[in-house]
Amino acid sequence: MDKLKDLFSRPLITGIVGLVIGVAIGWFAIGWGVWPIEWKDADASLLRQDLKAQYLCMIVDSYKVNQDANLAAARINSLGTNLETSPFLLDSIQGGGCSYKAGDEVIMQLKSALSAGTGTIPAVGSGETPISLVTPSATSKTGTKTSTLLLSILCAMFLIIGGALVYIFFIRNRKKKGQDSGSELEDDYMEEEGSFENQTMPTRTVPASGAQDAGPAAHFMTTYVIGDDLYDDSFSIDAQTGEFLGECGVGISDTIGVGDPKKVTAFEVWLFDKNDIQTVTKVLMSSHAMNDPAIRQRLASKGEPLLVEAGQQILLETATLQLEAKVIELVYGQGALPEKSFFERLTLEIGVWPK
Length: 355
What we know:
- This protein is an alpha+beta fold.
- It contains eight helices and eleven strands.
- The chain folds into three domains: 38 residues; 93 residues, no CATH class; 158 residues, no CATH class.
């Protein structure tokens, strides 16, 4: 359950899941179940090909009775085709299941009546009076284009509104909660343990003006507890004026063994300085990992390896920032794995000063 909560706390994952659920409900449940699409007054051009062939047979049947070439032309055009684009349309009329053949008299008469390629057809038997061919209506095409445009506008509005809601309810609130929780944690710690600057820490570089007793520009507490397989805390470092100075954080570097929960055998502490070209990283290793040459060599590529101990103070420096991390609590896990090979709990207190 905790894994699911952590997973859905990510705005991107929540947005994707919401999109999938919305499509499933809107398309399948509503579109096919509650309000399925209904066709009304559809054009003959939407018929299947075999039904179009049968409809063509009925056009010839009707022409044979009423000799109305204008009506026949209109019906042929309603199929979405005409003799100008398909001159051999009537030659394959037997495909509709009727008994007419291409050489039958009624077929030849209808061909003659529809033979004009100028947009008019002669009346049957007269050879003189032109009859206007019925062309497909442009109104339906215009209506289709308008519907497509409206649908596109609605989709765009839906995406914009959805993006705004995701930002308001997830991203912005998450940032605000993170800032509030960080402030509350700092206040609680200062009430219980005293101000951070009074703790014993390694000697740090300070301005010549003698700001030795000034508090840190940033102060954080972070705790890992076994089972938090996605543990990766990061913090923004800002000056008192609000200027962004950089970022720092702690995350899982390596694990040991198999199965859940993960058995963390090393952590990474890192410091990013906006005025420096590289991020400084140190790897806090368990006693077992530090004494295993293979593990130590593999993790050395990530940063300087350090054996983590209770009360230990770690120093990271960049061009303009100095980070001091103190190990407040260290508890090793117990189990079938080697002794002191993975962490049950680790709490770090982090302070960052400008150099």
